[in-house]
Task: inverse folding
């Protein structure tokens, strides 16, 4: 049998990667093999684990905060010394970062105690809904996923008004215009009401395995077709060894499946609603998008039908995917050499162009169709808070430029909300392979500004997204419907019923 | 051996009882020295009423209200939630109808396997094996893992690509990567959620039934053997009937708890694919916590309550539980 | 089959054979060991995970040897060490410079232990007299009462949680140990009463009568019969403790993080993006060890049932 050198190299590479993933050889040995086979790893400078010596907890001191902010916290915040405020949120990178920052940089200076309760996402929704519906004021600061923004517009203070009506409590140089406009518009605003400050923006980006692309001679896709054919090529070459073309978050009955679907529907010219508020998930564009997703599914591991975002994250981390379009906040975890098999191997690339695109004016409920699906969230001041003043001071501090910069630098993947954070030299300094990398930020900023897709935000949306679409689509992607059209017809009917009620 | 014999055997111990006078001197216990049953029962009844009655009444009241996403308030809706329940049971494609069927399959499978395995293991451990205490202590451990955590464990173990359990199943040729336990078209989704349930709750039967076996007096067993009965006959005609009360309690409680189980389904399949593993308690959980339809959640909660009531009642009658 | 037949018949003490090796017993022991081993495998895997670096945790086939064991997960979970001081072990979602605060689990273990022990003691204190009375006194409505007690376990926590939350809010019992203890006790009392009742039923009533004829009070008779249902008490206690230890939903809704039990804390170890396997495993194993020792200590009472007690 005739073997070309090229083919032998490829075999050696894929074997080395497979061995590495199974833990049979060290990362160093694998990289050596790859280098021998001529794979150039231009993944950016690698730093040894010791090099990114962390600013340890005890080193977090007030001198990491501008003098005038410290003074404001002491003087203005100090008036409320002894107060105790309550926050409830999901466990997200920025939330955890702020929890870790607040003791040294806020509580010590103001004397205000912040009780921050972290619970899983659906528990947040349940707790916040109870609090708002009964106006109990049990929590002073709410954490809202963007999907709920339409539901809670009457339950929070508009921060723009607070900045005006409470000038004596306003943080110096807070600069509300520093927040990226798309985030304010689509995560924190519904109708005319701004419900709070954006605090987090996981957003769909395109990541690929540089080693695999180089080995197979693939280029980052610029169109959806190329993206699909790349997935197919990788899957055919490597799936037997456990690396699939791509991975998805397609857990039936879970919100994550809906987020994947909308991205592909949007990138093929569809939308969830038309401008007159009628569900259009069964029109030809939407069906094309869903068909595209189902085609991609063939190049994913079989387990994707039980993967939510966490499952997908782990799969990529385990080296199971050659490429993926998903949350940018996953990236630092993949780059983390201690936990990831693919540290330094994943690369961000610009999102492929949409095959077709529906302008936002033709979609309903403030939906914006585009591939860069965002899943942002906000911190908001509860309208029922019994300690609105100290809570407002905390809210400003938590969302201020310096705090968000620190959160981006120390947290594993907390993403900036503000232009000044993207530009901050402390953030730029972390653009290297490692657990807290920020090397995907430039691409992320690009997606936020030019490719961001946003779900419709009617008040019934949580029900529609997490139940109707997630369940019926789950049926469809596991062969429960005769055809895509049939499944999407059902979804359209159920969505329209729910939207009308 | 009769009870009279046993009493006779015990006569010798009577002097070890504290004298009546002595006890009465400890005033606090005087009440408990009476034969008035309510004194003995009242604390339990009060606790159960205090914690139990309010949620029950609240849910009845709440079932006539619903959270309105448009206003963000809870508003009275009359019989709407109950009508919805009826329609979701009556319609062939109704969610509740499907969920009830899935629940039946889930509960019966889990109960049958857990009981059979649990009884077998309990009998084995009671058959004079060495280190029985150690095996028993080890066997109880799965119960100590919180179900939410156990579900996360099995999510990894059952993963076709990096799960140890799936790996070994693949090695012996039982499972493959195309139609795995978790994923694919979800052909084995129900099995996937039943495995952690069985792993965790078989020990429940082991614990109760073993304690029950230990409590059976040895005399009837010996008598039966003297009479020449075979091991199976002794087990069937002596051991099992004497174990009956413990079996009844264990099965009843597991039955009631199974009707409320949702952790494994929540973590492993979210009720999917589609609604294939959607049991009624998971559906109720979704209404109350994910889609924020509290009123309807209350209705489903009451449905589960009534269901448990009916099933338990049937069980008590059919198996002539002697309370 | 042939090996299991003697197993079924054998009473607590199989009739002693000659000095020859009891092969049946050897085989039964091996089967018991194998069964226990099978059930314990996932926990062994979990224990291994708790001393492995993350990369090794998900490797297949699972490695028993050949990895560098680490105690770092335990140092953070039990010792409040700063994860970043281990550098390499700092996980993605923890990031650099952040504390081990959320993973430091001694407070969670403490809260779980207080609630678990408290509710178990309360359950036994209430259920034992009740079960005894139901077994001994001629109650016309014994059957109805027993069934009513059973019904108190039927309301799913999914819908009981919110009303209890409102109730506790009024009573200012949110984040209170006694609140959780009462709720967990109410959850476990039905099982305890009915289970203990079955055990009391096995004790011949004549024993009490004989005792009382001899001058014991009703309470004395009750106290004496306790030693005869020791097995049942231990089984009940173990179950009540385990059910309280594992309870998730009520503990979540009725607290706001000031009090936080192990299952609630564990649920936050699965973050929006990743699961902290190492910390989860370390906490799981750490919380299992004391319970395992407890079961080992008390299980000898399970072995001595009525028979021994009665003919001592």
Result:
């Amino acid at each position: 049998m005739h073997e070309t050198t090229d083919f032998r190299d490829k075999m050696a590479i894929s074997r080395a990667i497979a061995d590495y993933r199974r833990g049979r050889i060290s990362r160093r040995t694998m990289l050596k093999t790859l280098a021998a086979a001529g794979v150039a790893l231009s993944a950016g400078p690698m730093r040894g684990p010791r090099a990114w010596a962390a600013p340890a907890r005890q080193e977090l001191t007030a001198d990491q905060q501008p003098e005038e902010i410290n003074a404001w916290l002491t003087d203005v915040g100090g008036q409320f010394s002894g107060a105790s405020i309550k926050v409830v949120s999901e466990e997200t990178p920025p939330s955890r970062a702020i929890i870790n920052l607040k003791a040294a940089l806020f509580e010590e200076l103001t004397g205000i105690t912040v009780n921050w309760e972290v619970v899983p996402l659906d528990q947040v929704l349940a707790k916040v809904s109870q609090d708002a519906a009964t106006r109990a004021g049990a929590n002073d600061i709410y954490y809202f996923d963007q999907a709920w923004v339409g539901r809670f517009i009457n339950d929070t203070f508009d921060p723009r008004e607070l900045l005006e009506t409470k000038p004596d409590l306003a943080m110096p140089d807070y600069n509300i215009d520093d927040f990226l406009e798309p985030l304010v518009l689509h995560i924190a605003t519904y109708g005319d009401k701004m419900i709070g400050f954006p605090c987090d923006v996981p957003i769909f980006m395109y990541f690929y395995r540089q080693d695999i692309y180089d080995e197979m001679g693939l280029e980052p896709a610029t169109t959806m077709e190329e993206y699909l054919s790349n997935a197919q090529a990788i899957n055919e070459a490597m799936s037997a060894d456990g690396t699939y073309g791509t991975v998805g978050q397609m857990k039936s009955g879970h919100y994550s499946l809906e987020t994947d679907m909308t991205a592909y529907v949007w990138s093929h010219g569809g939308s969830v609603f038309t401008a007159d508020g009628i569900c259009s998930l069964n029109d030809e564009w939407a069906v094309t998008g869903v068909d595209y997703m189902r085609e991609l599914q063939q190049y994913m591991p079989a387990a994707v039908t039980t993967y939510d975002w966490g499952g997908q994250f782990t799969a990529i981390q385990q080296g199971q995917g050659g490429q993926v379009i998903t949350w940018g906040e996953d990236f630092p975890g993949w780059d983390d050499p201690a936990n990831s098999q693919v540290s330094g191997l994943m690369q961000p690339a610009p999102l492929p162009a949409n095959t077709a695109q529906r302008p936002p004016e033709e979609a309903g409920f403030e939906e914006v169709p585009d591939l860069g699906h965002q899943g942002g969230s906000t911190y908001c001041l509860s309208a029922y808070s019994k300690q609105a003043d100290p809570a407002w001071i905390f809210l400003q501090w938590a969302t201020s430029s310096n705090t968000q910069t620190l959160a981006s630098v120390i947290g594993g993947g907390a993403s900036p909300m503000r232009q000044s954070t993207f530009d901050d030299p402390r953030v730029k300094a972390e653009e290297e392979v490692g657990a807290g990398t920020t090397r995907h930020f430039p691409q992320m900023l690009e997606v936020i500004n030019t490719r961001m897709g946003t779900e419709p935000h009617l008040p019934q949306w949580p029900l529609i997204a997490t139940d109707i679409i997630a369940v019926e689509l789950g049926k469809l992607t596991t062969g429960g419907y005769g055809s895509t059209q049939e499944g999407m017809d059902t979804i359209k009917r159920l969505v329209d019923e729910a939207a009308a009620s | 051996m009769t009870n009279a014999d046993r009493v006779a055997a015990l006569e010798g111990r009577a002097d070890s009882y504290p004298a009546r006078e002595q006890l009465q001197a400890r005033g606090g216990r005087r009440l408990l020295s009476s034969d008035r049953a309510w004194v003995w029962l009242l604390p339990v009844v009060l606790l159960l009423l205090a914690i139990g009655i309010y949620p029950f009444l609240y849910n009845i009241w709440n079932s006539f209200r619903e959270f309105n996403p448009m206003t963000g308030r809870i508003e009275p809706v009359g019989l709407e939630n109950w009508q919805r329940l009826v329609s979701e049971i009556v319609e062939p494609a109704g969610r509740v109808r499907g969920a009830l069927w899935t629940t039946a399959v889930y509960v019966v499978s889990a109960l049958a396997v857990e009981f059979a395995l649990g009884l077998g293991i309990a009998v084995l451990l009671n058959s004079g094996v060495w280190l029985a205490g150690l095996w028993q202590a080890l066997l109880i451990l799965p119960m100590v893992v919180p179900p939410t955590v156990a579900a996360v464990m099995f999510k990894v173990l059952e993963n076709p690509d990096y799960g140890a359990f799936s790996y070994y199943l693949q090695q012996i040729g039982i499972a493959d990567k195309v139609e795995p336990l978790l994923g694919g078209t979800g052909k084995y989704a129900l099995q996937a959620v039943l495995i952690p349930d069985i792993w965790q709750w078989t020990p429940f039967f082991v614990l109760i039934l073993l304690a029950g076996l230990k409590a059976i007096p040895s005399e009837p067993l010996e008598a039966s053997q003297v009479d020449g009965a075979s091991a199976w006959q002794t087990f069937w005609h002596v051991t099992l009937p004497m174990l009956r009360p413990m079996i009844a309690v264990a099965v009843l409680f597991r039955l009631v708890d199974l009707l409320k189980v949702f952790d494994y389904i929540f973590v492993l399949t979210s009720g999917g694919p589609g609604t294939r593993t959607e049991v009624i308690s998971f559906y109720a959980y979704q209404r109350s916590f994910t889609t924020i339809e509290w009123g309807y959640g209350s209705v489903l909660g009451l449905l589960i309550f009534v269901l448990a009531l009916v099933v338990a009642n049937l069980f008590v009658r059919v198996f002539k539980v002697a309370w | 089959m042939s090996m299991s037949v003697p197993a079924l018949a054998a009473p607590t003490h199989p009739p002693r054979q000659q000095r020859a090796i009891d092969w049946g017993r050897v085989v039964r022991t091996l089967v018991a060991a194998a069964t226990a081993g099978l059930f314990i495998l996932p926990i062994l895997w979990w224990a291994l995970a708790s001393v492995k670096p993350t990369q090794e945790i998900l490797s297949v086939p699972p490695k028993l040897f050949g990895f560098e064991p680490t105690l770092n997960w335990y140092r953070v979970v039990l010792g409040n060490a700063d994860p970043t001081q281990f550098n390499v072990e700092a996980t993605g979602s923890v990031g650099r410079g952040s504390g081990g605060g959320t993973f430091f689990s001694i407070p969670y273990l403490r809260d779980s232990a207080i609630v678990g022990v408290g509710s178990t003691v309360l359950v036994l204190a209430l259920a034992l007299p009740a079960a005894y009375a139901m077994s001994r006194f001629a109650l016309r409505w014994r059957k109805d009462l027993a069934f009513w007690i059973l019904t108190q376990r039927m309301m799913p926590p999914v819908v009981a949680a919110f009303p209890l939350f409102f109730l506790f809010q009024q009573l200012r019992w949110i984040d209170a140990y006694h609140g959780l203890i009462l709720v967990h006790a109410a959850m476990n009392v039905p099982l305890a009463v009915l289970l203990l009742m079955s055990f009391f039923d096995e004790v011949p009533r004549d024993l009490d009568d004989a005792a009382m004829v001899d001058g014991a009070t009703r309470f004395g008779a009750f106290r004496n019969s306790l030693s005869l249902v020791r097995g049942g008490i231990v089984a009940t206690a173990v179950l009540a403790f385990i059910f309280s230890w594992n309870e998730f939903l009520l503990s979540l809704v009725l607290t706001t993080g000031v009090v936080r039990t192990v299952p609630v804390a564990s649920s936050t170890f699965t973050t929006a993006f990743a699961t902290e396997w190492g910390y989860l495993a370390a906490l799981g194993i750490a919380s299992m060890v004391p319970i395992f020792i407890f079961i080992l200590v008390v299980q000898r009472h399970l072995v001595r049932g009525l028979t021994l007690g009665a003919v001592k």
User: Anything to note?
Assistant: Residues 106-136 of chain C form the longest helix (31 residues). Chain C touches chain A through 46 residues (CB under 8 Å). DSSP finds 15 helices and no strands in chain C. The radius of gyration of chain C is 24 Å.
